[in-house]
Every structure is written in structure tokens, then in C-alpha cells.
Specification:
Shape: globular
Order of helices and strands: HEEEHEE
Structural class: alpha+beta
Helix content: 10-25%
Radius of gyration: 16 Å
Strand order of the largest sheet: 3-2-1-4-5
Length: about 100
């Protein structure tokens, strides 16, 4: 039986993709998936270093249905460092979360 939180998260992603998705291009090496639906967002991060300096960064976030990417990244549906996403005329490198 699926976990209730996982079921709710999957339902939310499905609704977001149905209502707020934009089209992106996903690339791994020479293999490309075009016309992939993704919900695009932005996250802001702030950290204080050992000297008290505040470091602020902003990242672009892309939420996909993993089944849309199986032709590019295989059956596991997991993005890897080095994959690329092209959106709105810009190229983004896929990096690990955190």
C-alpha cells in the first residue's frame, strides 16, 4: 500500500504539470527529449560562512514526471550531474539537490 504522503505528492505534481507546465528540452549527452513538460520555479538559499558573511544564491527548479524522461535518462528516471535543461533561451546544468 502506498504511503499517503507519497500519494499526495504525486497527485500535486500531476496537477501542477496539468495546469502550470512549460515546455523544456532535456539533454543527456547526445540524447535529447524535446517538448518535455516541466513546472519551473525558483528557490532562494542563504548561508552564513565561518566569518559571518552571508551568501545568497538563487536556483532554477524544474519538476518533471519521470516517465517523460525515460527515453533520455533510462527507466530509473533519475537525473544526473551533467544533464542539461534548455528553457526560455537559457541552458541550465543539472546539479544534485542540497
Amino acid at each position: 500500500m502506498p504511503n499517503r504522503q507519497a500519494t499526495a505528492a504525486a497527485r500535486l505534481v500531476s496537477r501542477m504539470l496539468g495546469r502550470a507546465a512549460e515546455t523544456v528540452l532535456y539533454r543527456r549527452g547526445a540524447t535529447v527529449a524535446s517538448g518535455v513538460s516541466s513546472v519551473v520555479g525558483t528557490s532562494q538559499h542563504e548561508a552564513v560562512d565561518d566569518y559571518g558573511a552571508v551568501m545568497k544564491t538563487e536556483s532554477q527548479d524544474f519538476v518533471f514526471d519521470p516517465s517523460d524522461l525515460t527515453s533520455v535518462i533510462g527507466a530509473d528516471g533519475l537525473p544526473e550531474r551533467g544533464d542539461e535543461i534548455e528553457w526560455d533561451g537559457r541552458l541550465y546544468s543539472v546539479l544534485p539537490f542540497g
